[in-house]
């Protein structure tokens, strides 16, 4: 009986496909799995008006913080797959599952990547008065006397960035977790820890007035905000291409035509000059992507961080 | 001279018509949010946050800050009149505020807490104006070991916060700590007591716990009492807010001590007004010559915590503005406002954005004066709240508690938690287990654990870290002294209560004869 019902419902669904050109037919809710005022929330709030303009429908931002972004992500995974509920989240989408194994959703099966909209670069920072001025000096010093690295929390991208750095450089560093980027920066300022993978904005003014100094940019290229700071690629670590990216996801089962339309609309918004002018000062590097390309990236990163978590013994 | 120039600059910004308007709006909203139990400042500011996109950053901050400190002013109202804390930071004010209201001195209590709030806030603002850069540097010397030592001292000092059985008090502290363990461990990602509920990964919501234990439990108890309280119409008159000379005399030092403690805890990121209020109450009770008056309407028991939480509200801006480090989720929202407008918070903010920095600080004076003027005439209105029949008042309060709990995490799970904690709180009342120690354990326990674990990682497992570092060692020594003193004083109290052998014998003889 149940299967007949399901079949009937599916048939109804098939006979009335949600035409992508009619999308969206009502308000679109974007779930942001972080608190208001966080980087991701601010980015989404800046983006929303440009999507509203294209769609002629209101865009509602729904903050669902908790569980290192996993609470809101789970909520999006359970939403109706009609494109009217979307998720905008960070690379925590691929790092958190590497250490949390009791998630009520499968990041591969239950959400469909739509677009990777851009990223924030990380810089490795240390106290302004510390005795090391280059990354090499830091690695050598750590081999003589072990050092401490701060993170913004277990399972965050800052955590995995440091673990990957330790794995690749052989530096002798113990990881200490803080609750968020703020306390982690304080621990650098107060010399409690020695290194932290920070975004330029959370290091902020402290970087300009020399209270903290940048040793390297994580990645293969330098960044515009800090043209004098070498990239880890230049320093001989080609695999440290680690960015805090932000991406749009839709619940799995959303019509592929709608996914393509969403991707195109987001990419259009990203090209809007007014939008670019607002978010570039906030450290964002915008980029265009295809749903397929982003899906491949998500899949590869899920594997990569899971393997790192096992190798570094992060998960039991 | 430069200093006076800065003050002048600050006032010129704060006294612009737009800024006064938004300051008033913030203070008014804050008072309302504070008076209504359950609605929290974080929820209120989160909801208004998107609006600040369209305001000047200074104006936006002035408004949000007004809500932030306005809440603490308003929060004591429901604590005093209904035994329902408006915010967790006002929970301790229930202990003596509600007995005062029952004695028909509700108006006095409301008037005096407004004075204490203004005093505490002024104390905080003066510190903020004069010493921001110095204090920020000092706060940096507090590492994980120091935080742990400080929290341990707090727990030891406040363990006798409630009346009655010490064993029951201690049991509640432990229960609070256990509830605080729920969620994901910060250093190992081990999930504890979450029973597979994803929403519990972040731990139990403070609002849900405080509102359940204090709010819902109180409502259930009142329903059982059935009869509405008899209210003496005399106590509703505006003249009934006049404190006695004795009240004023007793209030000075508690206010001063409360304001100092509050200022101290405010500057430390991660602590804040709730802890400040609890500890200043504990201190007052400890140093009082008549600790038995506490819990029965002692005016010191409302003055100290209300001065402390307001002072902490103001000094919380010190690390936020000078280091760019938010001490709490609410402060993180304030920083968010700055970042949205492209202002990077940090040590240079004072020199690079003097209009913003000084304008904001001077607006605190404007806001606090507004709150004073707003609150004193309102006392009459609030006291009249007691004349609302319970069958209308309590369902509305319950509704607000539910709204507040929901908005504190945008999750229905919080409402279930309010229900669960309400039941727990009701059972606790029946068996006479005190609620305040539970809340204290819940607030301090997870902080202690977090800092202890981190201190252990940083010392590579050496316990001596708490005694090697000078600040931590000093606090530890003080903790030891507090412990010895409390054992000694409880011993003397016991001796005093048990009359010496001879007297007993005499008394027996007298009755025999």
UniProtKB/TrEMBL annotation, chain A:
<dbReference type="Pfam" id="PF03401">
    <property type="entry name" value="TctC"/>
</dbReference>
<feature type="signal peptide">
    <location>
        <begin position="1"/>
        <end position="20"/>
    </location>
</feature>
<comment type="similarity">
    <text>Belongs to the UPF0065 (bug) family.</text>
</comment>
<keyword id="KW-0732">Signal</keyword>
<keyword id="KW-0675">Receptor</keyword>
<dbReference type="InterPro" id="IPR005064">
    <property type="entry name" value="BUG"/>
</dbReference>
<protein>
    <submittedName>
        <fullName>Tripartite-type tricarboxylate transporter receptor subunit TctC</fullName>
    </submittedName>
</protein>
<dbReference type="InterPro" id="IPR042100">
    <property type="entry name" value="Bug_dom1"/>
</dbReference>
Automatic annotation (TrEMBL), chain B:
<feature type="transmembrane region" description="Helical">
    <location>
        <begin position="7"/>
        <end position="29"/>
    </location>
</feature>
<dbReference type="InterPro" id="IPR002823">
    <property type="entry name" value="DUF112_TM"/>
</dbReference>
<feature type="transmembrane region" description="Helical">
    <location>
        <begin position="195"/>
        <end position="217"/>
    </location>
</feature>
<protein>
    <submittedName>
        <fullName>TctA family transporter</fullName>
    </submittedName>
</protein>
<dbReference type="Pfam" id="PF01970">
    <property type="entry name" value="TctA"/>
</dbReference>
<feature type="transmembrane region" description="Helical">
    <location>
        <begin position="323"/>
        <end position="344"/>
    </location>
</feature>
<feature type="domain" description="DUF112">
    <location>
        <begin position="20"/>
        <end position="440"/>
    </location>
</feature>
<feature type="transmembrane region" description="Helical">
    <location>
        <begin position="466"/>
        <end position="488"/>
    </location>
</feature>
<feature type="transmembrane region" description="Helical">
    <location>
        <begin position="108"/>
        <end position="131"/>
    </location>
</feature>
<feature type="transmembrane region" description="Helical">
    <location>
        <begin position="356"/>
        <end position="376"/>
    </location>
</feature>
<keyword id="KW-1133">Transmembrane helix</keyword>
<keyword id="KW-0812">Transmembrane</keyword>
<feature type="transmembrane region" description="Helical">
    <location>
        <begin position="165"/>
        <end position="183"/>
    </location>
</feature>
<keyword id="KW-0472">Membrane</keyword>
<feature type="transmembrane region" description="Helical">
    <location>
        <begin position="138"/>
        <end position="159"/>
    </location>
</feature>
<feature type="transmembrane region" description="Helical">
    <location>
        <begin position="261"/>
        <end position="283"/>
    </location>
</feature>
<feature type="transmembrane region" description="Helical">
    <location>
        <begin position="60"/>
        <end position="82"/>
    </location>
</feature>
<feature type="transmembrane region" description="Helical">
    <location>
        <begin position="35"/>
        <end position="53"/>
    </location>
</feature>
């Amino acid at each position: 009986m149940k299967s007949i019902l399901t079949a009937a419902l599916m048939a109804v669904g098939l006979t009335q496909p949600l035409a992508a050109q009619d999308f969206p037919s009502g308000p679109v809710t974007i779930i942001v799995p972080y608190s208001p005022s966080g980087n991701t929330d601010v980015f989404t709030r800046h983006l929303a008006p440009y999507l509203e303009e294209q769609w002629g429908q209101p865009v509602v931002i729904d903050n669902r913080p908790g569980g290192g972004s996993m609470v809101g992500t789970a909520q999006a995974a359970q939403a109706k797959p009609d494109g009217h509920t979307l998720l905008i989240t960070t690379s925590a989408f691929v790092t958190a599952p590497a250490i949390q194994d009791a998630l009520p959703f499968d990041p591969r099966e239950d959400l469909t990547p739509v677009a990777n909209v851009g990223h924030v670069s990380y810089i490795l920072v240390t106290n302004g008065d510390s005795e090391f001025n280059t990354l090499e000096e830091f690695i050598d010093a750590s081999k003589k006397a072990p050092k401490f690295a701060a993170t913004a929390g277990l399972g965050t991208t800052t955590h995995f960035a440091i673990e990957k750095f330790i794995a690749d450089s052989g530096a002798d560093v113990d990881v200490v977790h803080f609750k968020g980027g703020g306390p982690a920066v304080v621990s650098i300022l107060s010399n409690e820890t020695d290194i932290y993978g920070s975004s330029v904005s959370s290091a902020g003014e402290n970087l300009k007035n020399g209270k903290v100094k940048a040793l390297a940019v994580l990645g293969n290229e330098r960044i515009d905000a800090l043209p004098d700071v070498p990239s880890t690629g230049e320093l001989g670590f080609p695999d440290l291409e680690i960015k805090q990216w932000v991406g749009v996801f839709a619940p799995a089962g959303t019509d592929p035509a709608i996914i393509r339309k969403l991707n195109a609309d987001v990419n259009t918004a990203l090209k809007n000059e007014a939008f670019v002018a607002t978010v570039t000062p906030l450290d964002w590097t915008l980029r265009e992507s295809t749903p397929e390309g982003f899906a491949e990236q998500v899949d590869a990163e899920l594997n990569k961080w899971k393997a790192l978590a096992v190798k570094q013994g992060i998960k039991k | 001279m430069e200093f006076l120039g800065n003050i002048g600059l600050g006032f010129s910004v704060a006294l612009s018509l737009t800024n006064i308007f938004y300051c008033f709006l913030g203070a008014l909203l804050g008072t309302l949010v504070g008076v209504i139990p359950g609605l929290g400042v974080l929820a209120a500011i989160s909801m208004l946050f998107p609006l600040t996109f369209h305001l000047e950053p200074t104006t936006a901050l002035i408004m949000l800050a007004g809500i932030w400190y306005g809440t603490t002013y308003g929060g004591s109202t429901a604590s005093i009149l209904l035994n329902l804390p408006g915010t967790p930071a006002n929970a301790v004010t229930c202990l003596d505020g509600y007995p005062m209201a029952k004695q028909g001195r509700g108006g006095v209590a409301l008037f005096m807490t407004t004075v204490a709030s203004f005093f505490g806030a002024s104390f905080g603002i003066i510190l903020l104006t004069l010493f921001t850069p110095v204090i920020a540097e000092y706060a940096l010397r507090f590492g994980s070991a120091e935080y742990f030592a400080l929290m341990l001292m707090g727990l030891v000092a406040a363990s006798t916060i409630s009346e009655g059985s010490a064993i029951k008090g201690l049991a509640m502290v432990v229960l609070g700590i256990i509830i605080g363990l729920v969620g994901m461990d910060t250093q190992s990602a081990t999930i504890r007591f979450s029973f597979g509920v994803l929403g519990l990964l972040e731990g139990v919501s403070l609002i849900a716990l405080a509102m359940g234990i204090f709010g819902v439990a109180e409502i259930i108890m009142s329903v059982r009492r059935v009869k509405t309280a008899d209210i003496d119409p005399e106590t509703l008159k505006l003249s009934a807010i006049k404190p006695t000379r004795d009240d004023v005399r007793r209030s000075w030092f508690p206010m001063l001590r409360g304001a100092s403690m509050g200022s101290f805890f405010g500057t430390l990121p991660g602590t804040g007004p709730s802890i400040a209020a609890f500890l200043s109450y504990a201190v007052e009770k400890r140093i009082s010559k008549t600790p038995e008056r506490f819990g029965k309407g002692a005016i010191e028991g409302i003055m100290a915590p209300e001065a402390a939480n307001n002072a902490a509200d103001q000094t919380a801006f010190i690390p936020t503005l000078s280091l760019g480090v938010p001490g709490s989720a609410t402060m993180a929202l304030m920083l968010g406002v700055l970042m949205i407008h492209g202002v990077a918070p940090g040590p240079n903010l004072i020199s690079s954005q003097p209009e913003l920095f000084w304008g904001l600080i001077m607006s605190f004076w404007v806001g606090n004066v507004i709150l004073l003027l707003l609150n004193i005439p309102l006392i009459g209105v609030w006291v009249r709240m007691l004349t609302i029949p319970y069958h209308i008042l309590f369902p509305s309060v319950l509704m607000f508690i539910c709204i507040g709990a929901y908005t504190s995490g945008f999750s229905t799970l919080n409402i279930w938690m309010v229900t669960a904690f309400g039941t727990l709180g009701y059972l606790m009342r029946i068996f006479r287990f005190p609620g305040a120690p539970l809340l204290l354990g819940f607030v301090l326990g997870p902080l202690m654990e977090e800092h202890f674990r981190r201190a252990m990682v940083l010392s590579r497992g050496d316990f001596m870290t708490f005694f090697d570092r000078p600040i931590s060692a000093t606090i530890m020594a003080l903790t030891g002294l507090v412990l010895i003193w409390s054992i000694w004083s409880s011993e003397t109290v016991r001796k005093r209560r048990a009359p010496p052998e001879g007297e007993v014998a005499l008394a027996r003889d007298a009755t025999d004869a």
